[in-house]
Every structure is written in C-alpha cells, then in structure tokens.
Task: inverse folding
C-alpha cells in the first residue's frame, strides 16, 4: 500500500540544516556536512534522468535506487521551495511536486511545470500528491511540513540518514511535536559515513 513518508539527512543532535539557512546557503552554516556521505563510498549511483552521480557504499546505492523507484510525488512547503529556488526548475527525482503555500508565485505558473501550488491546506496537498503518485509513495520535504503531517496523522514512515556529526544549532526536523509519537524501527542500513534508519509511525 502506498505510504506518505519523509526522508532527511540529519545530524546526531537532530538538525537537517545548520544555522542561518537561506537561498545563498540552503543547508545553513556547516550544514553541507550532512551531505558529505553522497561522496563517501566507492560505488557510483546516478540519479535517474539527471547527470548527478554519487559515490556511496553499495548498500546505500541500493537504498537510493529503491527510494527513487518507489517515490511517485512530493509535497513541500513554500520555504523549502524558495530555499532551493525550485530545484532549478524541477526536483531531481523527476516527479510531480505539490507546494503548500499561501500565495501562488505567478512566475512559476506554467502548464509544463512539474510544480502545483496548493493554497487550500495540507490535507488537500497530500491528497493531490497521492492521486498523482498512484501506487507509489508520497514524499514530504521540510521540517515544518513533516511536523504538521505528524500532528495531522498523515505521516506513515520516517527515513533518517543519520550523519555522525553534532551541528549544535540550526533547523531541527522534530521541533514542535505536541504529544509523544510512537515509532517502530523497521530497517537499519550501515553505509559509508551514514546510517539509514527507517521507522513506521504507529497510529
């Protein structure tokens, strides 16, 4: 059954970006350390449909292939969209992206665009993404959006790419959870400079 899931590279102290993140430094100060594992191994992985080539451990390459193959659509917030400058015109996974926003940036409105701007709430954005994804999963990007999905009971699965570093400050992935959330650990993959953790959200 298709799931709503999230996946982020995360420091050991829970940050997905360093402090002072912005369009000129989307990962914040020191946050680029969270992505070093993409070049930490000796096995090439080319993101389908792009020129992006990573060098990772074999087990990480398989994990990335699986993630790419099973993702059918993405939901993100306006801040993440703006920080990445719309990923240069389309997300590297090459799937439809639904952007939750209060206002539609007219410069991005195009029939050929892979972005759909949703102004009528989170549940609508997730429902539209599910429809677009078919039998594949929907990915949720961005700390605030992940927290909203957890509080709304919409999130099924959490993937953490745990990086052995303490950033000390920045953007926390789980910063506003109002109540305890039970998780079930379902998979652990050891890579080169990275540990991939998967948890099911117990509902």
Result:
């Amino acid at each position: 059954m298709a799931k709503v899931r999230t996946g982020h590279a995360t420091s050991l102290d829970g940050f997905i970006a360093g402090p002072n993140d912005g369009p000129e430094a989307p990962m914040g100060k020191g946050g680029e350390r969270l992505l070093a594992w993409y070049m930490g191994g000796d096995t090439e992985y080319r993101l389908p449909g792009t020129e992006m080539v990573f060098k990772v451990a074999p087990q990480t390459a398989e994990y990335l292939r699986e993630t790419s193959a099973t993702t059918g659509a993405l939901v993100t917030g306006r801040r993440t969209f703006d920080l990445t400058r719309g990923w240069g015109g389309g997300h590297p996974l090459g799937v439809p992206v639904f952007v939750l926003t209060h206002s539609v940036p007219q410069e991005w409105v195009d029939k050929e665009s892979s972005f759909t701007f949703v102004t009528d709430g989170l549940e609508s954005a997730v429902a539209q993404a599910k429809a677009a994804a078919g039998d594949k999963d929907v990915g949720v990007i961005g700390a605030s959006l992940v927290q909203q999905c957890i509080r709304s009971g919409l999130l099924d699965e959490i993937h953490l790419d745990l990086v052995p570093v303490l950033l000390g400050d920045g953007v926390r992935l789980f910063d506003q959870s109002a109540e305890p959330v039970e998780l079930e650990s379902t998979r652990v993959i050891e890579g080169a400079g990275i540990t991939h953790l998967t948890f099911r959200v117990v509902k």
Summary: Residues 162 and 194 are 6 Å apart (CA to CA).
